[in-house]
Amino acid sequence: MRSSHLLALAGCAAAVPLTLPNAFPVLSFPILRTRSSKASAPAAHTTCTPQPSTGGNTENGVVNKNCCTDVTVIFARGTVEPGNVGYFTGPPFIAALRKQIGASRVTVQGVEYPATTTTLATGGGVGPANMAADVKQALLQCPNTKIVLSGYSQGGEVVHNAFKQGITASQIAAAVMFGDPYNGQSVGGLAPAVVKEYCAAGDVICNGSGSFVITEAHLSYANDASDAAAFIVKTLGL
């Protein structure tokens, strides 16, 4: 079944060859919210608005200045996925983490960036800078929160390259990537014990082949959502 998502991919085929499985879900693409370029001063949060626990494809807990929580996840979606946390991997991972530690303990912010095949070839375009800005804003608003960086597919590139945009390993508690084209490379100097990479068998995007062909394996990371959430819980001692 072909969908609007498939048409978006097809329009980019001339730039990067992408092969999709026959079955592909119908997705709607909500308009991305613009982010503020200037972080406000830290809030006391004596009264605050909790982040909704059913954000779907879009999560804005940092830019909306929701209540401070134990954990803040900054997530970068994959190429041409909808919203700012995508469809295939972000929402299942976020839902699993909320289930395991409680939604009131987790803030989630999706990285705003085009996530096109063009930015795929350039290490995520403006994505790394925007992820770094999200980290800085999260820590400004909630200095005691533990920051987790995560990304799927091109979003993995965003995580790696965010460390070139003014954030340091000391600010990050853990990182989790799924189908990461940079799989196997150091993640901003983070200790290996706080980094988890998922690369499914048959996923040529993350297995070192250098291919950007989308296989069914590359769309399978919802299967790892609970394990990834458990890794975060254990690593952060929650």
Automatic annotation (TrEMBL):
Main subcellular location: secreted
InterPro entries: AB_hydrolase_fold, Cutinase/axe, CUTINASE_1, Cutinase_monf
One GO biological process term: carbohydrate catabolic process
Subcellular location(s) of the protein: Secreted
Function recorded in the entry: Catalyzes the hydrolysis of complex carboxylic polyesters found in the cell wall of plants. Degrades cutin, a macromolecule that forms the structure of the plant cuticle.
Pfam families: Cutinase
Protein name from the UniProt record: Cutinase
Cellular component, GO annotation: extracellular region
Gene3D superfamilies from the UniProt entry: alpha/beta hydrolase
Source taxon at top rank: Eukaryota
Key words of the record: Disulfide bond, Hydrolase, Secreted, Serine esterase, Signal
Signal peptide: 1-15
Reactions performed catalytically: cutin + H2O = cutin monomers
Alphabetical list of PROSITE patterns matching this protein: CUTINASE_1
Cystine crosslinks: C68-C142, C199-C206
Region (Disordered): 40-61
Family of this protein: Belongs to the cutinase family.
SUPFAM superfamilies: alpha/beta-Hydrolases
